[in-house]
Amino acid sequence: MFRPNTRLRLLFLLIVLLSSSNLIYSQSSTNKFVVVLDAGHGGKDAGNTGNNYYEKDIALKIVLKVGEQLKKYEDLEVIYTRKTDVFIPLDKRAEIANKSNADLFVSIHCNGVANSSPSGTETFVLGLHRNKDNLEIAMKENSVIKFEEDYQIKYDGFDPESPESYIGFSIMQEEFLDQSALLANFVQKQFSSTMSLKDRGVKQAGFLVLRETYMPSVLIETGFLTNKAEGAFLNSLKGQTKLADAIVDGINDYKNIINVKALESELSEYRVSSSDVMEDFSTVTFKIQLAASSRKIDPSPENFKRLSPITRYQENDLYKYLFGETNNYMSAQTLRDRAKAEGYTSAFVVAFNSAGDKISIKKALNTRVNN
Ligand SMILES: [Zn+2]
């Protein structure tokens, strides 16, 4: 339903969000944007064990990396449902998020199926499954409640392995569905633009852990442990780092859009609408300027706090060092925030036309309006 290419739907949603400011909220009592990170499974519940990898361990490693990164942003607060290898009941996970008045709940998992060929990333929001595959994944993830002693009482007789239980699955998350889908789209977009993993898209299914939360919530399946190549990628430090970076950027894309006030004040001087910045500018490339120096430094990520890609160009007598590359102004803001979080506190967005010449942000943004 919410395919990443349903841009029109997202634009519509954005306009709704922008025009009804009461929908824009930060639930927490502090001014910080609170993200609850939920590593699936743990303790006696190993999750899926495709190719002898343990889902509980890989999910936790990715979650800890996401949290480590998010903590660098001053306006973000991170809460974990678990930081170690312990068993946490599903309802307890949601309770942690609800009690902390979180702005987002992000549950991270790895996929596993009997067949070894399926691969790719997919992000779920709560809803009624549209096909058998989505139902199967929800059944598998929900079946962990059987590790909980009184699960039949706690979940009102819900049988995670019976398709009948999913008929009339009550959707308490309805009011957060659009925002959840927005986040899910951003996460999938980051995955597909930064990695060669197959993009399986944004989907809906009846996940118990998502049903119990009172905030926008997603469940990310970061890839298939049962697929040999993907399992090895998920088990690697490089794979976990890339996946974590993409999730962090997806969360920041979402936060930047929800934080409409900041976005609008930034855009007011350019006379473009907020919805314009959601679109890609085909003739403009945005990059983030990290530093300018008379010294010629090798533009490798190692010299720039692991940020990648780094490019260098010369302007007058100075070498300018740039991070990232995107055709989307909003994504550029997220990249800039990442650079700031890494310590480049004066990082800013610069724009280049298709000939590679630097142009002003105003001119870049007006390119779209004039087209
Ligand atoms: Zn799982």
TrEMBL record:
It holds the Pfam family Amidase_3. The keyword Hydrolase applies. It catalyses: Hydrolyzes the link between N-acetylmuramoyl residues and L-amino acid residues in certain cell-wall glycopeptides. It comes from Psychroflexus salinarum. Its EC number is 3.5.1.28. Gene3D superfamilies: Zn-dependent exopeptidases (3.40.630.40). It is an enzyme of class 3 (hydrolase). This is N-acetylmuramoyl-L-alanine amidase. Residues 94-252 form the MurNAc-LAA domain. Keywords: Hydrolase. Transmembrane segments: none annotated. InterPro entries: MurNAc-LAA_cat, N-acetylmuramoyl_amidase_3.
